[in-house]
């Protein structure tokens, strides 16, 4: 298995931009084009600094979802991004480092895929980038190795990969209304809620409610008996209460069983005890932020991708809305707070 660390000494005059989880794939949709434009702008800004490093922190290419797309095809399709990356790299004080994630794990397996990234983007591919400045060490990697659902195994199998490549396509074919867009839900504990929300808003509300109301209206009028109307109201009220309770229950169960969240942070704390670093910069969870942990700083570069977030719907049960999240970590030791997180959320108009 490919296992490469890059160790670099940095200075306070060097600017570092870490972006991850872009999931570039084909076709190049309008959303992906917005993301590409934003990246081009940020890379061009970074290029104005004399000494700069661009870190592509994993899952930059989406190689799980459509297995027929080659690394070369995807890189070439995003031609403006390629141009920005190459012109950034032309300047002598600049370099580009690509840390491999789980959705682009073929880079860790295939030397020819790595060669494509090295040739087309002129990026150095590795698993981990270690930066040192004075006595401080900053470890930058994608973050899936601390996630039991997505860590690399010697057989190349991971739960996450099976889910994306086998389980999801089957579910998408059978129940597209309930599953479509589930890949955009960032918080794993909300996955069952997403399915429930679709069930309610896409099937129950448009079909079942009108049927119950029509039936009650017809019976009330035909038999001039208002008990039918009362029965219908009771059925609707009880169904609403059942949905609310089920939603709460599913979230609680999912939080305990689907991983992520607190468990993940705890595994990072023990990772720090073994590996020793002052700061850890990951991607992977799409949950960007900078946080003080005991003995180190944790930073996450978030994502540059579509996300689905729960918003309260008219029944009090969340409705999931799609946004584009564009985020990054900057490292700049000329600043008082050297590691910073920045994000922008754009609402999508459907
Ligand atoms: Mn990942």
According to DSSP, the number of beta strands is 13
What fold name goes in the CATH topology slot of the largest domain?
Purple Acid Phosphatase, chain A, domain 2
Tell me the helix content. Answer: 40-55%
| Beta-strand residue percentage | 15-25%
Name the ligand types.
manganese (II) ion
CATH 2nd-level architecture of the largest domain: 4-Layer Sandwich
Q: Ranges with pLDDT <50 over ≥5 residues?
A: none
Biggest beta sheet summary: 7 strands, mixed
The DSSP helix count reads 10
The CATH superfamily name of the largest domain is Metallo-dependent phosphatases
Walk me through this protein's architecture.
By secondary structure, this protein is of the alpha/beta class. It has 2 domains: 256 residues, Metallo-dependent phosphatases (Purple Acid Phosphatase, chain A, domain 2, 4-Layer Sandwich), CATH 3.60.21; 62 residues. It contains 10 helices and 13 strands. It starts with a strand and ends with a strand. Manganese (II) ion (MN) binds next to loops.
List keywords for this structure.
43% helix; seven-stranded mixed beta sheet; elongated; 10 helices; alpha/beta; single chain; 350 residues; 2 domains; six-stranded mixed beta sheet; Purple Acid Phosphatase, chain A, domain 2; binds manganese (II) ion; 13 strands
Quick recap of the structure?
By secondary structure, the chain is α/β, with parallel strands linked by helices. The chain is 43% helix and 24% strand.
């Amino acid at each position: 298995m490919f296992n490469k660390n890059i160790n670099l000494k940095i200075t306070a005059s060097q600017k570092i931009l870490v972006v991850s989880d872009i999931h570039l794939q084909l076709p190049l949709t309008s959303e992906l084009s917005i993301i590409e434009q934003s990246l081009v702008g940020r890379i061009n800004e970074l290029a104005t600094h004399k000494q700069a490093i661009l870190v592509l922190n994993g899952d930059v290419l989406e190689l799980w979802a459509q297995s027929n797309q080659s690394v070369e095809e995807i890189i070439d399709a995003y031609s403006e991004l390629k141009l920005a990356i190459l012109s950034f790299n032309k300047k002598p004080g600049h370099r580009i480092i690509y840390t491999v994630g789980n959705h682009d794990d073929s880079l860790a397996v295939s030397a020819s895929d790595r060669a494509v990234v090295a040739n087309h983007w002129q990026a150095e591919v590795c698993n981990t980038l270690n930066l040192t400045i004075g006595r401080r060490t900053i470890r930058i990697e994608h973050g899936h190795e601390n996630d039991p659902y997505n860590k690399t195994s010697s057989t190349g199998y991971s739960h996450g990969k099976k889910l994306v490549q086998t389980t999801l396509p089957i579910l998408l074919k059978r129940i597209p209304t309930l599953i479509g867009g589930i890949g955009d839900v960032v918080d794993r504990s909300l996955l069952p809620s997403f399915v429930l929300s679709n069930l309610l808003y896409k099937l129950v509300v448009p079909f079942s409610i009108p049927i119950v109301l029509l039936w009650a209206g017809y019976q009330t009028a035909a038999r001039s008996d208002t008990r039918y109307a009362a029965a219908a109201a009771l059925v609707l009220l009880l169904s609403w209460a059942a949905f609310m309770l089920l939603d709460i229950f599913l979230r609680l169960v999912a939080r305990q069983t689907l991983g992520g969240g607190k468990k993940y942070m705890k595994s990072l704390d023990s990772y720090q005890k073994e590996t020793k670093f002052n700061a850890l910069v990951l991607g992977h969870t799409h949950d960007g932020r900078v946080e003080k942990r005991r003995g180190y700083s944790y930073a996450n570069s978030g994502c540059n991708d579509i996300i689905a977030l729960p918003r309260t719907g008219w029944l009090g049960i969340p409705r999931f809305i799609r946004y584009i999240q564009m985020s990054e970590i900057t490292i700049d030791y000329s600043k008082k707070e050297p590691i910073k997180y920045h994000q922008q959320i754009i609402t999508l108009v459907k």
